[in-house]
Amino acid sequence: MSDAIREYPAPGITVTWEPGRCEHAAECVRGVPAVFDTSRRPWITPEAAPADELAEVIDRCPSFALGYRTADGRTRTAPPA
Question: Average pLDDT in the 70-75 region?
Fold first, then answer.
């Protein structure tokens, strides 16, 4: 699998996912299963939840595999390796 950062845009937010960082803690899947569904392709559909709810759940990702950029300027990115 490519370690390139993937982007999933939706109104108000762009969700990013860096597969190489993912530790499969499943905070995302438990937090917003309508958005994060590993049985579906693409597995992230950010338009299925409000941007604020997505940001709150993504902030719980312990590996920083998930990040975001919001329309109001909030961001979450992985710290330097």
Answer: 97
Domains and CATH numbers, the chain: 6-76 (3.30.70.20)
58 vs 36: CA distance, rounded Å: 10
Band of pLDDT at residue 3, cut at 50, 70 and 90: confident
Contact partners, residue 49, CB within 8 Å, separation at least 6: 32, 34, 35
Check residue 58 and give its pLDDT: 98
DSSP secondary structure letters along the chain = ---SPEEEEETTEEEEE-GGG-----HHHHH-TTTB-TTSSSSB-GGGS-HHHHHHHHTT-TT--EEEEETTS-EE-PPP-
